[in-house]
Amino acid sequence: MMMMMEEKKEGEFLTVPPFECAWPKDLKFREAGRGCVAFEAFARNDVTLVFRENVGSQHYHYKRDNSPHYTVILGSHRNRRLKIEVDGKSVVDVEGVGLCSSAFQSYWISIYDGLISIGKGRYPFQNIVFQWLDTNPNCSVRYVGLSSWDKHVGYRNVIVLPLMHQNHLSLWKHVDVGYGGDYIHEECGQEELEDELSAYDKWGLQNFLESWDLSDVSFIVGMEERPVPAHKVILSSSGHFPLTSPDGVIALKGVTYPVLHSLLEYIYKGRTQILESQLASLMILSLEFEVMTLVKQCEEIIQQFKINDKLFDSGKRVELSYPNTSPHCYRAFPFGLAVDKKRLKQLYSSGEYSDVDIYIEGGGLVSQPHKIILSLWSVPFAKMFTNGMSETNSSRVVLRDVSPKAFEGMLDFMYSGEVNLENTMESGAMLLQMLLLSDQFGVTLLHQECCKILLECLSEE
């Protein structure tokens, strides 16, 4: 018969006595074999976490467990070693991850199909200090136990987070193939993984530059009347383009393709190159469409040429980059681009140039966003809209088992790059729903932001 552990709390944290283990009900991976636990611990030695398929008892101890399990011990051997055990047998015993005996410290441990990653700090998937790969992984572990050795261990702010595929890929970047043979290099699988990592890192608005995917407007340019596709919501939030033509065509007389390409490249990628001899033409075109940051940069370079009494070289190129003044550490849409976030939010609020209606079963129409914006943030949406699925040629999408408010919160993040929550009693529940929703739709940065806010809230409490 399973015994329920009586949780002994001192202040606001859980104290686990020597040779015992706590099994809080909420410490359970959403998916077997895949999850992350973040926590703060206070101990002289042996902060011990156990990962099992089933919940253990109060007097459970990993040394007496014959069932499949993983054990991670921080501060083993009197706070000198890091240990990982598989089914009671030591597989890792190295120096590192020392504990602080005078204050709580933050740690996280993730497991993904046998890849065990350990990090320090409040934010999961950052500051990795050690990784080990089980070549015969236990993909059934789901429950997390908080244990100890011969001294009391204090735990607080313990939370289990879902481990997204993108988080897993980022963790693989840090894997060292020199872990004493624990990590087996398989050439074919490694190349496939690197390709996937590269594709993910490079995903962004630049993928839609002059692409017919999701385009709803096109330029006709040059003597050859070359069609160049674009997207109304992107153009409208970057300048003032004539987008009211019923046939969705903008005819540009006297403009060459290289000049238009440089303008669009600046908008879609945040940077471009152009021949010095075409710089004035780019400035004129940018001024016509009021892409003012590019106009200013062109003017400054032309003025510099005049000051130096220098002639334009027809064969040399000039580099132009959007000045990214965002405090964000990541370059994600709409940061680092010539996109007016205020205008973008207006387009979202008004539904102008929207090409999809989002319905939630039981909740009716919840939003009229833009397919390209959803696709920039979410690979599932991108595949839905571009891979020939029913939604590719439809302006109606129906979602099931989704919170309307959480979905609207996720859309708000997609258009602003920021999490905006009202400070109410329901904000915590809303944040958890957005965390799960970002996992479901692969919105990696929203998932990370939700994790950070949740951990900060737990620390404040």
From TrEMBL:
PROSITE patterns: BTB. Signal peptide: none annotated. Transmembrane segments: none annotated. CDD domains: BTB_POZ_ZBTB_KLHL-like. InterPro entries: BTB/POZ_dom (IPR000210), Methyltransf_FA (IPR022041), SKP1/BTB/POZ_sf (IPR011333). Residues 215-276, 354-423 form the BTB domain. Pathway: Protein modification; protein ubiquitination. This is BTB domain-containing protein. It comes from Cannabis sativa (Hemp). The gene is LOC115713817.
